[in-house]
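Justification of computing resources. Each target in the renewal requires a structure prediction run like the one illustrated here; the chain below, 110 residues long, is used simply to show the kind of job we budget for.
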Amino acid sequence: MSSILIKFIFYIRFLTIFFGGFLRIFEKDLKNFAKHNSGLTIPLVIILFSMAGIPPLAGFFGKLYLLLNAFEEKLYFLVFVGLLTSIISAYYYLKLVKLLVIFHSCFNIL
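Resulting structure tokens:
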């Protein structure tokens, strides 16, 4: 059971790092994306919130169950690494949400 858990944790972390790096490369294109595709910006923001682990979304529950299972298996180092990488990735995902929503106000809040 623990070998599957370790592989899954590393798979999720590498996937998160890859997706974050991909979005970081195309950050300038996202500025124009929010201006011209406001209908597609909303699903992208929801996906970023889910990957950041915001509680009502699936990403939160996936991370929660994964970290609880690792904690029950007494894999404390992996729990620490998982929490640390979740915090770091949440920072970058929320930074992209800020770029999409606040700076260009594609939702016309103001």
